[in-house]
Structures are given as C-alpha cells and as structure tokens.
C-alpha cells in the first residue's frame, strides 16, 4: 500500500469537545467548592469533606468489582452484597482472634491486625466468588432476568449462612486503638480511620488504573468489556478471564465489607444488601463497566450525602437519587459510557 | 492445485429458530485466495463465524490442516493458526492502535521486523500508533483489523467484506495490501460482494445462495464466462427480488 494512495492525517479534537470530555473530573472539586460556599465554616467543611471522601472511597471499593463484572461479563450480580457482608464477618472474626494486637497502642500491631483481617476477608470472599460464579452465574450467562433471580437467591442463602455461623444478632466491630479518635487541624476534627479509608481507596484506584492501562490482563479486560467475542477470536480464553475478574470483584467487596464494618462499627447479615443501593447508584452514575466513572460517582455520592446530612438532613434521604437523576439527564449512559460492540 | 488447507463438509448452522447454513461444502486450497461470493443473507458471514467457532455447527464437519476443528472453542481454533477479520472490523475503540496490536500478538511479544512490514503495508498503523483506535476513520479501522490479523504468522485468514463502505481509493489500497499478503503464501478466505475487486485477487471462488454453495471452481473461469456470471449472480438477484 503506497503512501500516496492514502494520506493519513491526525485531526485535533476541538477544544470545546476536549473540555466536555474532561468535565466529569471537575465535578468532585466543583461539588466540594459548592459545599464550602453552602456550609460557610471551613472547619466544618473540612470535616465533612474528609468524611465524604472516606465514605466515597469505601463505596468505590465495593462498587469497582461490580462495575467491572457488569462491563466484562454482562452480569447483573445482585448477590454482590453477600461478599460485603461475608467479608465484614470474616474480618470481625480475625480481629477478634487478634484482640491483643488491636488493643495494643502500637500502630504497627494495629495495622498488621487490620491487614491480616483484610487479607483473610479477601481470600474467603474471593473463593466464595469462585463458587458463586461456577454454580450460580455460569449457567445464566446472557440471561439478565435469570441472573437477577439467581443472584438474589444467592444473596439470601449467603445471609442465612451468616446467621448459621455468626448468629442472627448484630455484632460490634471496634476499631484498633490507633484508628480511634481524631486528628485536630485548627478547628476541624478529622477521624483517623477516615484518613486510612481515603488512603486505601486512593491506593486501590491507582492500582486498578495501572493494571487496566499498563498490563496485558488489563488490556484484555478493557477489550473484553467492549467486544468479548473478538478477544476470543484473537486466541484468549475469555471464560477464564471472567472467573478471575469475578473472583477479584468478590475479593474487593470483601475488602469493602471489612472497611465499612470498621467505619460503622456494627455489622449485620443484611449490611451488604443495605449498602448495595448506594453501590448500584454509583455504578449507574459512573457508566456501567467504567472504573474511572465509578470512582468519580462514588466520591460525588459520598460528598453529597455528608454535605446534605449537615445542611438539610431530610433532603439527605433523596440526595443521592437526585444526583443520579441529574447525571443521567446530562449523560444518559453515565459519566463515562463504556462502548460495547453490538 | 495445492492441498486443501480447510475443508467444510455438509455443515448446518442454526441461529435460534433460523436454519442459516443448510449443508455447506467448501474447500480452501493452501496458499491462495478463495473468494466466497453471494447476495446479502446467503450465509457467507455465518460460514466464516461457524469456521471460527463463534457459532456452532449442528451437523457436518470442518477440517483444518486435516484436523477436525468442529466443536472446538474459538480460542483453540485461533491458536491453530486461523485469524478472523469480522465484517464490523472488531477493533477495540477504547484501546490505542498499539494496544490493539499488542493484544493481537497473543503468542509472543510483537516481532518488530514483521511490524515494520505491516507499517509499510498500512502506513496509518505507524502514523496513529499511539492514537485511540476509536478516532480512526472507517478505512483506517479496516486496515487495523487486517493488520491485527497478520501481526503473527497465520496459516489462514478469514476476511469478511474488507471493502464494505470504503471509498474507491481505500478499496484499491486494501486490494493491493491483500495482493501483497497473498505473495507471502498466506491462505485467505475472503467474503466479498464487490466482484470486480474479488476477481482481481481470487484464485478460486465459491458462490453461496440460501445457505448452500451453488458453485465452486477457479476464479479465472468465472471471470471469463459472462454467461456463468449472469447465471450465478443474476440467479441470486432475481430469485430474491
């Protein structure tokens, strides 16, 4: 093919279009700025903003797995909440075993106890995810209605199993010594645990972004989200990729469960299904299958929930739904729509 | 004529309630271009997808290099040396051109010498190497789709209507590229409705209608026989008007 036959040219994306593409990234600082103007007091605003970011990060941890599972596998997993609850209970058990470490004033011992609890929760929920995918999800690939029914069924079974193992009562999950209390910055009091949640959430987001952008597995996931059939035609076993992604998503939900449990300091068998409302809102706002959109959506939900709870507690009940409606009216496919092959 | 690389015998394919392929018999000799012609809905795309394992044959058998591949999973068929360029090109628009090519090199890192040859064959691949594939024009996406299929040496390439919807200049460029590819002893099974283009590069030809092969033979015989063209092409058109 000669150069003269076809002259390739690069067309620059107009500035206006570039701005609209980047606009979602500005939504979080814009909302924070609006919050500052509405709240007035910078100390209260700082406390609420950190609380909102921490809440958003924890929701992101739980939602990230769900959105990738939906994007890649086209599976609507209503049972995702089961992994959140199981993760929290496993974390509770491990932290109870390591009570000596969590009661110690040593930051290192506290951190080690939490990390072991997180690791155990992720291993158990990852394995549970394996069984869930093989037994419940695999027979209903491509059938959305059946997926909703069977994954709901899986959630109920998991909740009943929690009753069997840990009993029907809610349990108190106390934070390790080093994560209790607040740091005072001027007039603002910031809970230490919220800072930990922000750090873990941010680290997870950056790690996921790195894997998706810079590794072959990440490329396969992104390509599979768009056109799984073509990935198979290139010689890759997408079913194996499905399983890995499902297990990873389940493990992330388990991680989210431990963190959410430590945040609320109370865990119940139903905590997963309760938080799933927010998780689904975040996944829808972000664009089904989009990790970046999920991250921005989670931060928006976290910040808005905290600001409105402070400014107008009654409005807080509908604020996240209103946010979802507003975003979908602006971008009906979510913040970052994922292009799927027809 | 060389040995047959691909043999499709009595293949039936059902998609839902539709009986699309109704006993397809097709041979693809090694080392040339076999063109599969036929009207819209004749079953050409279904034939390629069935060979690739994307749809299962309910009856019949498909042999590649004398090994039965009917019932194998698509990745297994691909790893035996068959590449597929679908009608919709199957380009991953969320990925860059480089990422598309990296994924296509499924068995080893990209061979730089081969990549250089591909960039000479399709200049836009080099020009837009780091650009998002979603920003490419239709012709450039088609080039990327073919480039992806040949980034690793393949024994057989299934190409579904590579000139569909392209401007005449791009069609000529694509034809030149396929001709050069043919010179490398790669076997091509080409689905095409553009008979003028197909006749210039095809060695053998098969014509489909209603889910069956109604004619197969040497391309030159068909191009030189206006009456046969009229019979085969005319039959297809008139029968479905």
TrEMBL record, chain A:
Principal subcellular localisation of the protein: membrane
GO molecular-function terms, A-Z: transmembrane transporter activity
One BP term from GO: amino acid transport
Subcellular location: Cell membrane
Coiled coil: none
Sequence intervals crossing the membrane: 20-39, 45-70, 82-101, 107-132, 144-166, 193-212, 241-263, 275-304, 311-330
Family annotation (InterPro entries): ABC_transp_permease, BCAA_transport_permease
Membrane topology: Multi-pass membrane protein
GO cellular component terms, semicolon-separated: plasma membrane
Alphabetical keyword list: Amino-acid transport, Cell membrane, Membrane, Transmembrane, Transmembrane helix, Transport
Pfam families membership: BPD_transp_2
Entry-linked PANTHER family: ABC TRANSPORTER ATP-BINDING PROTEIN, BRANCHED-CHAIN AMINO ACID TRANSPORT SYSTEM PERMEASE PROTEIN LIVH
Similarity field: Belongs to the binding-protein-dependent transport system permease family. LivHM subfamily.
Protein name per its UniProtKB record: LIV-I protein H
Gene source species: Roseibium album
Gene: livH_6
